[in-house]
Structure formats: structure tokens, C-alpha cells
Design a protein that fits this description.
heterodimer; A: alpha/beta; Dna Topoisomerase Vi A Subunit, Chain: A, domain 2; four-stranded parallel β-sheet; B: alpha+beta; OB fold (Dihydrolipoamide Acetyltransferase, E2P); de novo design (two linked rop proteins); five-stranded mixed barrel; 8 helices; binds zinc ion
């Protein structure tokens, strides 16, 4: 039997995604071995993150200042908007250091089997931003899955009539991968999206 | 580890932990199955692109503890063209949802598998609304609750009109329909199409031409009927209304 306070910690940790009961126990025991000051900092970080981090009121990327640093950065091109499903996708694209425009986070993708339709995503807010008149191109960077494809098709149908260019991220082969190991669907799409050399 | 082969169509999937997925399959040999795919969400996984919804594939599965695990996938048809057309995609999801909600797990239904593959072909080549309506009506029959079309299921009287009662079990007589507040008046064109699709082959269904108004009513009729049998709403049908405009 675990002491009650420890059992409570294990139970709380095991509610986190990807943490099973064994991992939760290992993490809890690790916390007990940590210096008290570090435990305090961990607890404080949890509470502060929850209290301070909010979706940006313009792009809905997570931020502790509103609007977020990307939306307020004068060095970023306000005429190009990259639409993503999730804040994690913003972080991934930022890591590539290639994109200099701004973002719009939808909060998911159309997924009828889960009951998620267009009205459950931040599409109305996107259209409002587009009506501002400053945006010339929307890059749809939804995931290359059926749900992401459906969302892209739906957005294109709404945005094209506004006279704004709509593009989609190319589907291709993973860099550093082997052609021979690519699945046939990815290969077919990579062939479709080939470019002149 | 024991492995076995199956031919199946992917109906849907959801995340399981950080990198794994649970995939809903409909197989020719074993009916509806839920299986696990390991590390499928990593971009290096060769399985990810092969297990997208609507893919028709030959699979090698390994017996697992809670769920069996996908070991290999050979794509027979990826239905990539469905993914380029929002309307076909939307009705594809309705076909998947009907299958998930109505067919019990792990019961072999080879005749339903055949219908499903024909419905996917029809979704790709024909009117996707007719395809979904045809699939639903034929599915009801295969599962043992074919809607009544000539005789009223409640009183045995004449039911040749357009009164459709999901609760009573299909077309019913005017008198019995009055007792069911959920009954629908399909109108002549949609009622005729529904009766036709109940006994049509996929080829015959593919030749059916309907007005937009009538296709909408056929879909409303089959969705209400499916929801009455499943005793819960079809999520895909709700989203369909927003997508199919
Ligand atoms: Zn922002
Ligand atoms: Zn009757």
C-alpha cells in the first residue's frame, strides 16, 4: 500500500496523456527524491502556466501576452497567413525558420465521426481576419490526413470567393528517408506534387 | 506470435497514447474489428498512409493482448480521389458511420463487406448521395431489418404512399403514420427512389438520377431509420448538414 499522499500524486499523474500507472509511479517516486526547492518550482510552474497562458485573441496560438509575440512582431509579413490545426503545429513550423508570415490556429480539423464540424473550429474568426483586407495568401497547413484534407477543401471553398490565394503544403517524402520505404499513398502524392528542376 | 490475414476497409481511427492508433476496420473474413497500429503517428511510419479512412487493403495482423496489432498492410485501393472532393468525402463518412453504428463487432458479414466495397466505388464514380442511400438501405436488409415497402409493418394494410416511419419500420399506412409523430412525408420522387434502392444492385443504383430535393429526403429517411435502429444519433449525419451546402 502506498501512503495516501503518494497515492494521490500517482493518481493525478496517471491522468496525464501517455502516462500509464507504472510511469506515474516512477514519476511520483522521482518527485519524492527531488530537492524540496525544485518540487516547489515544479508546482509553481504548473499553476502559473495554467493561470497565464491563454490563446492569443488574434491567432489563437498559446501565449502569455495578448496579442502574441508573432502577431505583434512588425518583422512578420501580415499579408501571408498560415492556417494550422493546433498550437503544436505553429511550434513545428517555427522550428523550420522558413515561414515569415502569421498564423491562425483552428483548434482541430473536421472529423465527422467524432462529431467535429466546421462550426466547432475557429473558421468564423478566420473569415473575419480575412475580411480585414490585408491578407493576400492563405497557406493551409492542416495535417495530411483525411480530416486535414476535408478541412482544407472546406476552407478553400470559403476563401477563394474572397479573391485571396489559397495554397496547401506540399505532400512529399520525409527528408532523410528512403524512397523504397515510403508507403504508396505518400509516393503517389509526392509524384503528383513534383516540381521542375 | 500468431498472425493471420484479412482483407479490410478502414472506417476510422483514433489516437492511442503518444504514437499509436486504434483503427476501425471492416474485414471480409471477421466483420468489424478494432486493431492497434504501433508508432503510426511518426512520419517515418510506413503504415500511416496505408491506414487512412476508406483504404481497401490486405492486412497481416498479429494476435495481441487487448487488441490485435497490424503487422503489414498492402493497399488494394487507397481511394485517394475521394479525398479531393468534399462532397464524396462527407458521404463516405456517413457510410463509415452507418457501418460503425449498426454492425456489431467481430461478427462475420461477408455480404456487408461486399456492399461496402461496392458503395465506395459508387461514391467515387456516381452521385455520392445516392451511393450512401443505397448502401444504407441494402445494409438494413443484410442486418435483418429491411424497411417495409408494400405492406404497413404495424397493421398489414396498404403502405404504397410516401409515409416513412423509422419507429414502425419503413413505409406505413396513413392511419398508423398518424400515431407516430416522428414519421416523414418523403414525397413521390424520394419514396419511389427509396423503394427502388431497397432492391437495386450497385450498377442499377449508379444509373439513378434524382433531383437535389429528393436525394436530401432519401438521406434524411435512411439517417432517421439508422438512428432508430442504433438508438443514438449518427455523428457524421450532423456534420454532413454543415458540409454539404
Ligand atoms: Zn497571435
Ligand atoms: Zn398501418
Amino acid at each position: 500500500m502506498l501512503p495516501e499522499a503518494l497515492a494521490r500524486l500517482v493518481e493525478q499523474l496517471s491522468r496525464l496523456p501517455t502516462v500509464g500507472p507504472k510511469t506515474a509511479q516512477r514519476l511520483a517516486l522521482h518527485v519524492l527524491r527531488m530537492p524540496e526547492e525544485e518540487v516547489r518550482q515544479l508546482a509553481q510552474a504548473l499553476v502559473e502556466a495554467k493561470a497565464k497562458v491563454r490563446p492569443c485573441s488574434v491567432c489563437f496560438h498559446l501565449t502569455d501576452t495578448d496579442p502574441c509575440p508573432i502577431c505583434t512582431n512588425p518583422g512578420r509579413d501580415p499579408s501571408v497567413l498560415c492556417v494550422v490545426e493546433d498550437s503544436r503545429d505553429v511550434l513545428a513550423i517555427e522550428r523550420a525558420r522558413e515561414f515569415r508570415g502569421r498564423y491562425h490556429v483552428l483548434g482541430g480539423a473536421i472529423s465527422p465521426l467524432d462529431g467535429v464540424g466546421p462550426e466547432d473550429l475557429r473558421i468564423r474568426e478566420l473569415l473575419e481576419r480575412l475580411r480585414g483586407g490585408q491578407i493576400r495568401e492563405v497557406i493551409v497547413a492542416t495535417n495530411p490526413r483525411v480530416e486535414g484534407d476535408a478541412t482544407a477543401l472546406y476552407l478553400a471553398r470559403l476563401i477563394r470567393p474572397l479573391g485571396i490565394r489559397v495554397t496547401r503544403l506540399a505532400h512529399g517524402l520525409p527528408v532523410g528517408g528512403d524512397l523504397e520505404y515510403a508507403d504508396e499513398v505518400t509516393l503517389a502524392r509526392a509524384l503528383e506534387g513534383r516540381r521542375d528542376l | 506470435m500468431a498472425v493471420y490475414k484479412a482483407e479490410g476497409v478502414v472506417l476510422g481511427r483514433r489516437a492511442l497514447g503518444e504514437a499509436d492508433r486504434v483503427v476501425d476496420l471492416f474485414t471480409r473474413e471477421f466483420g468489424r474489428l478494432r486493431v492497434k497500429v504501433k508508432a503510426v503517428r511518426r512520419t517515418t511510419s510506413r503504415l500511416a498512409g496505408r491506414l487512412e479512412p476508406f483504404t481497401h487493403a490486405r492486412l497481416l495482423l498479429a494476435r495481441g493482448r487487448a487488441l490485435d496489432v497490424v503487422a503489414q498492410v498492402e493497399v488494394l485501393d487507397g481511394y485517394a480521389d475521394l479525398r479531393e472532393d468534399l462532397r464524396r468525402l462527407s458521404y463516405g463518412w456517413l457510410v463509415a458511420d452507418l457501418t460503425l453504428q449498426l454492425v456489431p463487432e467481430a461478427e462475420p458479414h461477408p455480404e456487408v463487406f461486399a456492399l461496402l466495397v461496392e458503395a465506395l466505388q459508387l461514391l467515387r464514380e456516381g452521385d455520392p448521395v445516392v451511393a450512401a442511400g443505397w448502401y444504407a438501405l441494402r445494409l438494413f436488409g443484410e442486418l435483418g431489418y429491411r424497411p417495409a415497402s408494400g405492406r404497413c409493418p404495424s397493421c398489414g394494410g396498404e403502405a404504397g404512399g410516401d409515409r416513412w416511419s423509422p419507429a414502425l419500420g419503413g413505409f406505413c399506412c396513413p392511419r398508423c403514420s398518424e400515431a407516430d409523430p416522428g414519421h416523414l412525408r418523403l414525397g413521390g420522387e424520394a419514396a419511389g427512389a427509396t423503394r427502388f434502392l431497397l432492391q437495386a444492385s450497385a450498377q442499377e443504383a449508379g444509373r439513378l438520377r434524382l433531383s437535389e430535393r429528393a436525394t436530401g429526403r432519401v438521406v434524411a429517411a435512411v439517417v432517421a431509420y439508422a438512428e432508430a435502429r442504433a438508438d443514438r444519433p449518427l455523428r457524421a449525419a450532423k456534420v454532413l448538414q454543415a458540409l454539404d451546402r
